[in-house]
Design a protein that fits this description.
Elements lengths: L1 H14 L7 H4 L3 H21 L2 H24 L5 H15 L1 H4 L7 H18 L15 H14 L7 H19 L6 H21 L4 H25 L9 H14 L1
Helix pairs in contact: 1-4, 3-4, 8-10, 9-10, 11-12
Length: about 260
């Protein structure tokens, strides 16, 4: 294993060589590579969602390359090395698992989750981040950030008692959106604000239901894609053009897709 890690580290070193490396790789920095890092993380999640083990392996390799790429950029600038990255996460894991690497008793899973958050809060406090919402990265995908903000607030008691009031809140927010859409002229800033409220409550609803919103939306996207492809196939079988097909006919095929798939 170490031999293969050394190999990819050396490949990245050669790719970044200013004289003999790849021009594209040489000109990259943290900011330009960041979008690719996010993309690769999502592609890992997609492979997991599809249950394709070969793709999971390949996508994890692409994500590992991103870690090595960032570490190489940092090492060239004299900031830190890949060894520093590995040391940092190793130390962090040991500190966060005193029941494994220390003398504490082994907790139940739920208790460990609470303890994990307590340890992370202590780490933030040592860095001077004492606010409940401190250190929730602004660069996270908005849905994931909404979930993390809600979880942080819930830890100090700012939360709904159960899912019922969240459903009521969703109805309230969709009503407010409907009211804004009925205004003449429409105020797009207010409409955007109300849409944001609806989405934020939807994330809260998923959290209260014990469902990861990102995973749920990924599955919904896949379901929509599968059903829409069914519509395309049925229309093509009939020798028709999708653009010339009425909404009523597409809806008929959609309902058929719901039964067939």
């Amino acid at each position: 294993m170490l031999e293969q890690l050394d190999r990819i580290i050396e490949i990245m070193r050669r790719l970044r060589d200013p004289e003999t490396g790849c021009p594209w790789d040489v000109e990259q920095d943290f900011a330009t590579i960041a979008p690719y890092t996010i993309e690769e993380a999502y592609e890992v999640a997609d492979a997991i969602q599809r249950g394709d083990v070969d793709d999971i392996r390949d996508e994890l390799g692409d994500l590992l390359l991103q870690v090595i790429f960032h570490a190489r950029i940092a090492e060239e600038a004299g900031l830190f090395s890949l060894a520093d990255v590995a040391r940092g996460i190793s130390d962090k894991m040991i500190d966060r698992h005193p029941h494994v690497f220390g003398d504490e008793t082994r907790p139940e899973a739920a208790q460990q989750s609470r303890r994990w958050e307590d340890i992370k809060a202590a780490e933030r406090a040592r860095r001077g981040q004492t606010g409940v919402l401190d250190d929730v990265a602004t660069g996270l995908p908005p849905m994931l950030r909404a979930l993390k903000l809600q979880k942080r607030a819930a830890r100090v008691g700012f939360d709904w008692p159960d899912i019922g009031p969240v459903i009521d809140k969703l109805h309230e927010e969709t009503g407010e959106l409907r009211d804004e859409l009925a205004q003449t002229p429409m105020d797009m800033a207010k409409i955007e604000d109300e849409v944001g409220d609806v989405l934020f409550v939807a994330v809260n609803l998923a959290r209260q239901a014990g469902v990861d919103p990102e995973t749920a939306l990924m599955a919904c996207n896949a379901k929509f894609e599968k059903r829409f492809r069914y519509i395309e196939q049925q229309i093509e079988k009939n020798g028709e053009n999708l653009k010339d097909t009425s909404l009523e006919e597409m809806e008929m095929h959609w309902q058929a897709a719901k039964s067939a798939l």
